Amino acid sequence: MEFNAIDVRAKAENKEILKGINLSIKNKEIHAIMGPNGSGKSTFTQVILGNPVYEVEGELIFNGEALNELSTDERARKGIFLSFQIPPYLEGITLKNLLKKIYYLRRGYDERDLKPYKEFRREVEKALEILKLPPEFLEREVNKDLSGGEKKKSEMLQMLIFDPEFIILDEVDSGLDVDSLKAVSDAVNHLYQTKDNIGILIITHYNRILNHVKPTHVHVMKDGKIVKSGGSELANIVEKEGYGQI
Ligand code: ADP
Ligand code: MG
Question: Is 88 within a domain?
Answer without folding.
Answer: yes
